[in-house]
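[Discussion] Sanity-checking designs against the backbone

I'm trying to build intuition for which residues belong where. Below is a structure token string of 106 positions. I'd appreciate it if someone posts a full sequence so I can compare it with mine line by line.
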């Protein structure tokens, strides 16, 4: 299965990269994981202002670019690396909510 990085690279909404308010990390039953969702949204909102996903081919490459182009501390970059490497076991599109649920096992 793909990682969350792979999903961010391949999934688009209206031919644009996914925006933070459009994603929620859930378990297989659809229960949201607030901690992982907040971390992913932080990554999308803050870090991806400095680096375009289209310019990197791997999660580690993204972290290296962020290390080079941002003042983010190593502990934040480490957490970003963890969420990007998290296995995504499926997607659930919830059009009424305007969200894409990224399914992880916990």
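Best answer:
Here's mine. Compare freely.
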């Amino acid at each position: 299965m793909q990682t969350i990085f792979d999903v961010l690279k391949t999934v688009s909404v209206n031919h644009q990269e996914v925006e933070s308010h459009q994603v929620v990390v859930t378990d297989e039953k659809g229960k949201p994981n607030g901690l992982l969702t907040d971390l992913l949204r932080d990554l999308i909102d803050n870090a991806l202002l400095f680096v375009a996903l289209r310019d990197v081919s791997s999660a580690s490459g993204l972290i290296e670019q962020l290390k080079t182009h941002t003042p983010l501390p190593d502990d934040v970059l480490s957490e970003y690396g963890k969420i990007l490497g998290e296995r995504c076991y499926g997607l659930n599109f919830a059009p009424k909510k305007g969200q894409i649920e990224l399914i992880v096992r916990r």
